[in-house]
Amino acid sequence: MADDPIEKMNKESLDKVIDTIDDLDKKHKIFLRSRWMSVLLLWEKHARQAAFRYHLIRVMVIISGVLITGIAGLGETSQIQPQLDEGGRIVIEKNMTSNSITVLYESGINAIQKAITPNLVIVLLGIIVSVGTGVEGLFQFGQVWRKKRKYSELLKLEGWRFIQLSDQYSGKNHDEAYTEFASRVEKLIEIELEDYLGVFQGSELKKTE
User: Fold this and answer.
1) pLDDT digits over 119-130, tens only?
2) pLDDT tens digits along 132-158
3) For the whole prediction, is pTM greater than 0.85?
4) Structural domain range at position 155
5) Are 98 and 74 in contact (CB under 8 A)?
6) Has residue 90 been placed in a domain?
7) How far is CA 83 from CA 56, 98, 110, 162, 167, in A?
8) Which site from 28, 109, 125, 147 is most exposed, i.e. has the minimal number of CB atoms within 10 Å?
């Protein structure tokens, strides 16, 4: 799988910022990269993926629903019979009393006739709506996107506070503030994990009710 260009750009940017911290122990910088930065990039990546899948499914469901309404509201559908005249050109005949669209291709002696009814199209579109709704209900892409985005922003804010020694880290150097920062990062990861699992536990509870 190709590298995510957004993730790569963010990683390079954060690496440069971490390298500028002169009063932080080397092993603490390793923590920043292997724990804080890696988790942050992972959450941001999951948020982007979930957002894309959520909006893709929503667009498919909305378009299919609109098409179902439109096709069902047409009532009688014209019958279109394309066929070749003596000059090889297509001749179209319409019959407004038919409830099917018949496409007839004539080539020499043999004739192939295919009938596609509006009801069949409606059924296929209905399947798309049902599958899309079911997939979203199972994987909860909308909820995952919002929660991953929320916690990635919180983790990012905590990191920037530490790097800039602001708020609760003010008045300390980076080595002195490191222990509190590491503790807050681990606590945030723990909360995110419980909240993330709660998304799927909640969906399972709704199914059993």
Assistant:
1) 888 889 999 999
2) 999 998 999 999 999 999 999 999 999
3) no
4) 7-75+118-208
5) no
6) no
7) 38, 18, 12, 74, 78
8) 109
